[in-house]
Structures are given as structure tokens and as C-alpha cells.
Specification:
2 domains, binds nicotinamide-adenine-dinucleotide, 22 strands, Aldehyde Dehydrogenase, Chain A, domain 1, globular
């Protein structure tokens, strides 16, 4: 079993930080530093068969044994978070190394394990009925490029805790770091006495491998974390599916808020991993009477204010016009701008700033592209509103009915309640940065699969189970 020592980790991280002096990339979708990654297959059917063998092995285990594997996954995730953070940024070109490291620590620390699986007992005149949370079998999971290894590890912990095997079809743009995480889970399994191959992935994931996965009879549950296209595809597969789709989280700031704190919290949340998390602040609706002060506070916290002309110029770069299948021209975010640093984006419109600039802010009207599109980059439009009714109406429209995440800074309980009720999102964060909503500086467990469309919400092990009932009529009561 190839467990990595701390000295080796240090050496690897140093070599990545130095820019890998050999000039060659030290990883691929099947290897890392000359070490073969475990559980990676060229053929989806073979991967599913291997994941099924993993499932059979987990079924034969006690819950305590499963928990030992999960403890080892947590330990390796903490130890190797720097490697995955570096690799994630290097491979995708998106996000911030330090923030990705923190995201891995969050997953290791706050993803629920087997304690999330709770049986119910009901007794009465007619005896005892047990309801237990059983595994589905082999889960087919599709994962995004924005939180790649974080999602693979978070899904693995929850799905294994629930007793499932897993086959991943990760985002092709993040396949190396995703497969590194698959290998990490398998190394943890072997080290804790589990099977050598517990979870599986593809050498080269494609739409075709995803489609084989979706229709394979051995796949009993599909879990999809990604944009609207893939969630739609999975939900129309005819199988039980959990869909964690796109958001466009609005923030309302009213005139009762602590504006100093709101300015800092919004910039901290919006810039976390360069705005890649689907829960991150994407557009602000600020009461006119506090908007100037809010903008100043944002500037004090690393935001750079651009004017309307610059905003239009930037919008023409970060959004690309494409013709969709129906022959209609639509705007989509430019992949080469998603998750990029603010200074890199500003350079595209000829503005030169240093790395202390974390975020680009601008005042826009409601219909501006920056408000309407889920950009996933540190650009934050601010729309002035006159009152809470206007703020709520526009914020709900900007959320596009995704019912994903919304934020508000206010001390007025009526305003907070009115927005929470109207927007109907899975996550609603009050007076804190967005990441408090996934347990980072807020109470509650974490997940990187927030299932709004299918209703599981902040997924955890129990989301990947099916309920089974066992009835003993007329006995097994002690009263
Ligand atoms: P994406 O939609 O481009 O890709 C997600 C995955 O789906 C990838 O593995 C991709 O290869 C695959 N895919 C795309 N279309 C497919 C299809 N028709 N059939 C099968 N597979 C397909 O996502 P991304 O850019 O990596 O991630 C960003 C998007 O995901 C954003 O919209 C973001 O809000 C969303 N997201 C949501 C959550 C959540 O928990 N709700 C978490 C992370 C990301």
C-alpha cells in the first residue's frame, strides 16, 4: 500500500511551488509523480463492475469498519490538501490555492460519516416496526470543475458511510485532480482494511461515458453536481437522481445593516476561491441611502470600483456569444475567465493593479449581464434599490428561480423574513459571508453537493440511502 509520508508530501509541494523544475507536468489522469492512481479505468463498464465489487465489500463490513475507512479518508485529505489545492489551480487555471486548501480541510472536518445514518423504531399496540437507511448499491456521480477533488472526497465519505460503491465521471477539465482524490479514497480504504478499489473513475471522461453510466443497469442512483445542462440530462435519465445545479446568489443590504461588516463579509464571500463556489455572492441589491458607504467599505476590503463603460467592456470579454441548438444567440461565460484573479480580469480591459485587489465592483442596472449571468469570477455588480419590496422583487428575479442560495445583511427581522420566504432558496445566509452556509464559520455540516432541484438540500450520507421497513407484528415490545 503506497501511503504517502509527510516528508514526501513536503517534497511534492515544494516541487510544485518551485514550478516543477524539470518543466514536465508530474501528474496525469492515471499517475502522480510516477505512482499509478488506483481505481481509474479506460472503460466505463469495467469501472462500474469494479465499483460493484467495492459495494459488495462494503456491504460485508460492519459500520465500525466503514467508519475506520472514513477516518483514514479524513486524515489523508488533511495531509494532502496542499497537493490537491496546488493541483486543482494548476490543472483548471481557476481559483486560489489557499482557499482550495481550506475547502479540503472543511470537507475532512465537517462531512458527516456513519453517524448520519439513523434507524427509527416505532412501537404500538401492533408490535414493532423498524425503518433503516439502506444503501442504493453503486452510485454514479458526476462532479464539476469548480470544486473537483472537494466534491469527489465529500461525495465519497457520504456515499461510503451509507454503504454504497461509487463510480465517478468527473469534469474532463479537472480529471487529474479528481482522479487524485479517487486514488486517495482507495488508498484510505486499503490502509483501513477495506478493498483496494472502493471508488472508481475514468481515464478520459466524456459525454459518452456519462451516458453509459446513466443507463447502466447496475447504477441505482445518479448524483450530479454541475450546471443546468448536466442536471437536466441526469434528471431525464429515468433513474433515481439527485441534482445539485446552478445558482446565482443575490445579496440584499438594507439600511439597518452593519454596513462595515456587510462590506467585508460580502467581499470575503464573493472572493473565496475567486467566486467558484455555487453559493458565493454574485450580485448585490443595496438600499440607495447606504450604497455609497457600502461601496467604500468594499473598497477598504480589496474591491476595485470600475465605471459603467469599463463594466460594459469587461462584460463583452467575460461573456461569449454562442448559437444554441435552437439556432438562438445566447451568452455564456468564457471558460478562460471563470475563477481568474481580479487583477488578471482587469488587465483584459487595460487596468493594471496589484494582487491586493481581490474583487471588481461596479454599479449597474438590473438587466446588466453581470447581474443576469452566473459569472463564477470575482466581479460583483451593485444595483441601487429604494425599498425592501423592490430589493426582494429584483433579487428573486436575479436568482432565476434556481432556489439555490441567497444572502442578506440586515437587522430588521421583518425584512429578513420577507426575503427568506420570497426567495425560497435551499441556503439563506444572514449577516455573514456566503461560506457560513456550508459550515465554514457557521453551524452545521458541510457539503459540496447542494441539491436544490431534487430537494435533498445540504446532502449528507442519509441523502444516498433508501428507506427499508421491517415489521414484527404483535411482539418485541417491553411495555
Ligand atoms: P458543468 O456543468 O460544466 O460540468 C459538470 C459535469 O457535467 C462535468 O463532469 C461535465 O463533463 C458534465 N456534463 C456537462 N454536460 C453534460 C451532459 N449533458 N451529460 C452528461 N454530463 C455532462 O459544471 P462546471 O462548470 O464544472 O461547474 C459549474 C456549475 O456547476 C455552475 O453552474 C455551478 O453553480 C454548479 N455547481 C453546483 C453545485 C451545487 O452543489 N449545487 C456545486 C458545484 C457547482
Amino acid at each position: 500500500m503506497a501511503n504517502i509520508t509527510e516528508a514526501e508530501i513536503r517534497k511534492i509541494v515544494e516541487s510544485i511551488i518551485k514550478g516543477n523544475t524539470s518543466g514536465a507536468k508530474n501528474y496525469s489522469s492515471t499517475e502522480y509523480n510516477g505512482r499509478k492512481l488506483i481505481g481509474i479505468y479506460a472503460d466505463m463498464n469495467e469501472a462500474i463492475d469494479a465499483a460493484e465489487r467495492g459495494y459488495r465489500a462494503v456491504r460485508a463490513m460492519t459500520v465500525e469498519q466503514r467508519e475506520r475507512i472514513i477516518t483514514e479518508i479524513r486524515r489523508l485529505t488533511v495531509a494532502e490538501a496542499p497537493i490537491m489545492a496546488e493541483m486543482g489551480v494548476a490543472e483548471t487555471g481557476m481559483g486560489k490555492v489557499e482557499h482550495k486548501r481550506l475547502k479540503h480541510l472543511l470537507v475532512a472536518d465537517k462531512t458527516p460519516g456513519t453517524e448520519d445514518i439513523v434507524s427509527e423504531a416505532r412501537t404500538g399496540d401492533s408490535g414493532l416496526t423498524l425503518t433503516e437507511m439502506a444503501p442504493f448499491g453503486v452510485v454514479g456521480a458526476i462532479t464539476p470543475s469548480t470544486n473537483p477533488s472537494e466534491t469527489v472526497i465529500c461525495n465519497s465519505i457520504g456515499m461510503i458511510a451509507a454503504g454504497n460503491g461509487v463510480v465517478f465521471n468527473p469534469h474532463p477539465g479537472a480529471i487529474c485532480v479528481s482522479n487524485y482524490a479517487v486514488d486517495l479514497v482507495n488508498r484510505a480504504s486499503a490502509a483501513a482494511g477495506g478493498p483496494e478499489v472502493l471508488v472508481c473513475s475514468m481515464v478520459k471522461p466524456t459525454m459518452e461515458t456519462a451516458s453509459i453510466m446513466q443507463s447502466h443497469p447496475k447504477i441505482r442512483l445518479l448524483v450530479c453536481t454541475g450546471g443546468p445542462g448536466v442536471v437536466r440530462a441526469v434528471l431525464s435519465s429515468g433513474k433515481k437522481a439527485i441534482g445539485a445545479g446552478a445558482g446565482n446568489p443575490p445579496v440584499i443590504v438594507d439600511d439597518t445593516a452593519d454596513i462595515r461588516k456587510a462590506g467585508k463579509d460580502i467581499i470575503d464571500g464573493c472572493t473565496f476561491d475567486n467566486n467558484l463556489p455555487c453559493i458565493a455572492e454574485k450580485e448585490v441589491f443595496a438600499f440607495s441611502n447606504i450604497a455609497d458607504e457600502l461601496i467604500s467599505e468594499m473598497q477598504r476590503n480589496g474591491a476595485y470600483l470600475i465605471n459603467a463603460e469599463q463594466a460594459d467592456k469587461l462584460a463583452a470579454i467575460v461573456l461569449e456569444e454562442k448559437t444554441n441548438k435552437a439556432g438562438k444567440t445566447v451568452k455564456t461565460v468564457s471558460r478562460s475567465c471563470v475563477g481568474r484573479d481580479a487583477d488578471v480580469l482587469l488587465a483584459k480591459i487595460g487596468v493594471s493593479v496589484d494582487k491586493s485587489v481581490r474583487c471588481i465592483i461596479c454599479e449597474t442596472d438590473f438587466m446588466h449581464d453581470f447581474v443576469q449571468h452566473e459569472l463564477m469570477m470575482p466581479i460583483l455588480p451593485i444595483v441601487r434599490v429604494s425599498n425592501i419590496e423592490e430589493a426582494i422583487e429584483l433579487a428573486c428575479k436575479a436568482e432565476h428561480g434556481n432556489r439555490h442560495t441567497a444572502h442578506m445583511h440586515s437587522k430588521n427581522i421583518d425584512n429578513l423574513s420577507a426575503f427568506a420566504k420570497a426567495v425560497e432558496t435551499t441556503i439563506f445566509v444572514k449577516n455573514a459571508p456566503s461560506y457560513a452556509g456550508i459550515g465554514f464559520g457557521g453551524e452545521g455540516h458541510t457539503t459540496f453537493t447542494i441539491a436544490g432541484p431534487t430537494g435533498e438540500g445540504i446532502t449528507s450520507a442519509r441523502s444516498f440511502t433508501r428507506k427499508r421497513r421491517c415489521v414484527m407484528a404483535d411482539s418485541f415490545r417491553i411495555i
